[in-house]
Amino acid sequence: MTAVRPDTVPQQAPAAQAPFPTGFLWGAATAAYQVEGAASERGRTPSIWDTFSHTPGKVVNGDTGDVAADHFHRYRDDVALMKRLGLQAYRFSVSWSRVQPTGRGPAVERGLDFYRSLVDELLAAGIKPVATLYHWDLPQELEDAGGWPERATAERFADYAAIMARALGDRVSMWTTLNEPWCSAFLGYGSGVHAPGRTEPAAALRAAHHLNLAHGRATEALRANLPAAAQTSVTLNLHQVRPLTGSAADADAARRIDAVGNRIFTGPMLKGAYPEDLLTDTERIVNWPELIHEGDLAAIAAPIDVLGVNYYTPTIVSTPADGAGDTRNDGHGSSDHSPWPGSEHVAFHLAEGKPRTAMNWSVDPNGLHALLMDVAREHPDLPLMVTENGAAFDDAPDADGRVHDPERVAYLHGHLEAVRRAVADGADVRGYFLWSLMDNFEWGYGYGKRFGAVYVDYATQRRTPKSSAHWYGDVIARHALPPEA
């Protein structure tokens, strides 16, 4: 037998990963204030984010969403780009003040016409429209009347949901009530790093309850006005909470943050009750028996068809030793005020030995797998969908105008592999939406953080798909992850 030299043995190509389930939905997401622009066109009036971003000192560089990515005027080109990339679904949000400028009364048809046209364009391109009713942009007039800490805002939201269902229900079959109500309540009314910029712990907890109630009332309104086959959902940025050490004190810190970061929403929405430990942790701040009216919990627990899960990075916590200062590495912006009412003393930490994004968030795909498995075990009959996942990096075009973002490709590969593993381990995950389709206005960070798979030159509004956009298109075409290089 003739020996074969090792250097002549053909190298076996890496094997591709197992495919995702049949029917798994591939999409990308944006939010109205972050991409639309056209801030005062067709009758649109200011939202709390217009007011906040125009307030000096609130947003980096004084940036606003007045123009953003100009999606309002360029949506046809953007949909054509989505089609070229192979997207199967587009998750967009509706600007409440574009549709119902005062947050009350009849809709402005000119505002609705934009969303009608967007949906028609998506359907013509073979892309499934997924509508989110609220992504943080409360009409300013409702904030002037008290905002989310006031019960009436939840009732106004139900009216708005009914308007949208009647306008688009014949063409949109998947609806989300709220996106990340934790941010709306605790960053908007607790730490003040998001609009409307209030720093009132009691108001933050009141806002959380009324956002829960708004979700329930809106779900009822959607079901009353949509075809029976339409799906309703809510999207939560569930914190994948880990104690820093195995100590009892750190375990209690994790319990506390899980309560005010997660179970304050999953408890009433999915189980019909607030967790007792949350009520105890916060009883000195808000009078829960007075806040929760008869019938509220039943309304909040209106059944949904899908739970949206947003994940970017894990949350690692501890209880500082006596005399030690706490740290606010919670990934939610810098403020002298805590977004964790009742647990202000808890310290937050970055994962050791992990790469970081431009947001200084630890990259840890295992956190997504663990989170999906935790939710699946707790709610085994509820289908899940990853409705946001992505990363900001300091992207820039090269000399040829191309944008290479290998760090984002690696991030997405790791997190999609985590989703695939979760499915293999029994989690009923129905789809994945990349955050974000394109670079956009990144809230308090202005235009300095780029989450998009598509690069936006804000001076010219030119769109350039990054390497990650082409990579993601390949994943969609394969319905599986490519082999790692």
From TrEMBL:
GO molecular function: beta-glucosidase activity
Enzyme Commission number: 3.2.1.21
Basic and acidic residues composition bias: residue spans: 325-335
Listed Pfam families: Glyco_hydro_1
Region named Disordered: 322-341
Transmembrane segments: none
EC primary class: hydrolase
Family, similarity comment: Belongs to the glycosyl hydrolase 1 family.
Name of this chain's protein: Beta-glucosidase
Organism annotation: Streptomyces rubiginosohelvolus
